[in-house]
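Colleagues,

For the teaching module next term, I've prepared a clean inverse folding example: a structure given as tokens, and then the sequence designed for it. I'd like students to try predicting residues themselves before seeing the answer, so please don't circulate the second half yet.
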């Protein structure tokens, strides 16, 4: 499955500029607001899951955050970000991995994901996602997770997805994660379509 996923996303990022993919945001305002609201310090470790070509890392660097990791399935996505960031790219830790096989070597204070969870349609993959989240997030740390909402699309980038409401996320994450806030938001794609996202913020108990 990892090989198939990597091949798919390599094809996406090889055939389209990042500004043409449906999830593109010039400024990820909501993610930035929620990260700031989480109260992590500028020196705290932050990981962006599936953020290979996302502009989030640009804005976090500009805001002064200094311990940033970006994880993605394909190096091709990172190529776009490195070109965009120039010399600043050397201050980011770029990790090529499928999230279900990621083995964190450290703890993070904040986990951000706007790109991965809703693509995990297999229950085993979702369970592994939560396992990795537990392994990666420090006790008291925060998770900002955005998925397609109840009225979101049924497919994205040609792939089946899993839409979520808050109850489904609570059941998936379990009692170890405390819900802090959630909100629905409509994302306007570069092609002019509207996609509903569910943004949620969690704190790991302990």
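(Answer key — instructors only)
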């Amino acid at each position: 499955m990892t090989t198939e996923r990597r091949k798919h996303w390599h094809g996406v990022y090889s055939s389209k500029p990042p500004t043409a993919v449906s999830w593109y945001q010039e400024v990820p305002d909501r993610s930035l607001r929620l990260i700031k609201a989480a109260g992590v310090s500028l020196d705290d470790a932050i990981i962006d899951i599936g953020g290979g070509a996302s502009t989030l890392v640009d804005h976090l660097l500009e805001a002064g955050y200094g311990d940033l990791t970006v994880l993605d399935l394909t190096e091709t996505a990172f190529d776009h970000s490195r070109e965009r960031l120039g010399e600043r790219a050397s201050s980011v830790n770029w990790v090529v991995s499928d999230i279900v096989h990621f083995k964190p070597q450290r703890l993070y204070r904040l986990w951000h994901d706007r790109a991965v969870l809703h693509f995990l349609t297999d229950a085993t993959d979702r369970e592994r996602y939560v396992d990795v989240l537990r392994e990666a997030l420090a006790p008291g740390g925060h998770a900002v997770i955005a998925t397609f909402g109840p009225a979101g699309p049924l497919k994205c980038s040609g792939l089946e997805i899993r839409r979520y409401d808050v109850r489904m996320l609570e059941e998936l994450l379990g009692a170890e994660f405390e819900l802090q806030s959630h909100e629905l938001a409509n994302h306007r794609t570069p092609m002019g379509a509207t996609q509903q996202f569910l943004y949620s913020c969690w704190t790991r108990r302990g």
